TrEMBL record:
Protein known as: VOC domain-containing protein
Organism: Sphingomonas oleivorans
InterPro entries xref list: Glyas_Bleomycin-R_OHBP_Dase, Glyas_Fos-R_dOase_dom, GlyoxalaseI/FosfomycinResist, VOC_core, YwkD-like_dom
Annotated signal sequence range: none
Top-level taxon of the source organism: Bacteria
Domain VOC: residue ranges: 4-126
SUPFAM superfamilies, per the entry: Glyoxalase/Bleomycin resistance protein/Dihydroxybiphenyl dioxygenase
CDD domains: VOC_Bs_YwkD_like
Length: 126
């Protein structure tokens, strides 16, 4: 019934800051960007392999509950070939990254960091 993940939508508190984070720091290619005047909202689509992230702004979005962990989407995970290189890139841009750990079930390396609004993001080495 489902073929692949099409997109994930993220609402940010500061569109310019988050757009810069996802395009310049994470390096996600910008597919398109539009301003929706009737909603006073920016939206851009970012490529993540065959999937996309839809990055939205709204005038006054409520804060995301993250800790303690709330019911719902927990985090987004990005597959990388070289976890150490990806961590260095993030740290070179001033992004705090948790220590690298090993998944006890798959024995793959992974780590977490956060976007500008505190959304947990994971890097998972393929």
């Amino acid at each position: 019934m489902f073929d692949t993940l099409h997109h994930v939508a993220i609402i940010c508190s500061d569109y310019a800051r988050s757009r810069r984070f996802y395009t310049e720091i994470l390096g996600l290619p910008l597919i398109r960007e539009v301003y929706r005047e009737e909603r006073d909202s920016w939206k851009c689509d970012l490529a993540v392999g065959a999937a996309q992230i839809e990055l939205f702004s709204f005038p006054t979005p409520p804060a995301r509950v993250s800790r303690p962990e709330a019911c719902g989407l927990r985090h987004l995970a990005f597959k990388v070939d070289d976890l150490a290189a990806a961590v260095r890139r993030l740290e070179d841009h001033g992004v705090e990254v948790e220590p690298i750990r090993t998944d006890p079930y798959t024995e793959k390396l992974f780590t977490f960091f956060a976007d500008p609004d505190g959304l947990p993001l994971e890097l998972y080495q393929s």
